[in-house]
Design goal:
Strand order of the largest sheet: 1-2
Radius of gyration: 21 Å
Mean pLDDT: 90
Order of helices and strands: HHHEE
Low-confidence stretches: none
Amino acid sequence: MRLLDKQYMDTPYYGIRRMQWFLGQKGHVENHKKVARLLRLMGLEAVYPKPNLSKANPAHKIYPYLLRSVKIEQVNQVWSTDITYIPMAKGFMYFIAVMD
């Protein structure tokens, strides 16, 4: 499970078959059913585009883009922020970006 977790951090797009191949390269020959069970137990799932992701939910309100007619010509006229988290060995690190 430790090997699977480490490999998942490096390649979260690996599915069951690639994880099985990876374990075989490391000398742990396991069948796909065991690998699938371990990944499910750990709560890991391959990251890939799911179907219908671009369909909007009709219940969500659509907000207008307020900067469409604004000409940005000077410093500090428009600000933007973003936040993400990065998994670490013990917990997570939060990364915040403020863009001017």
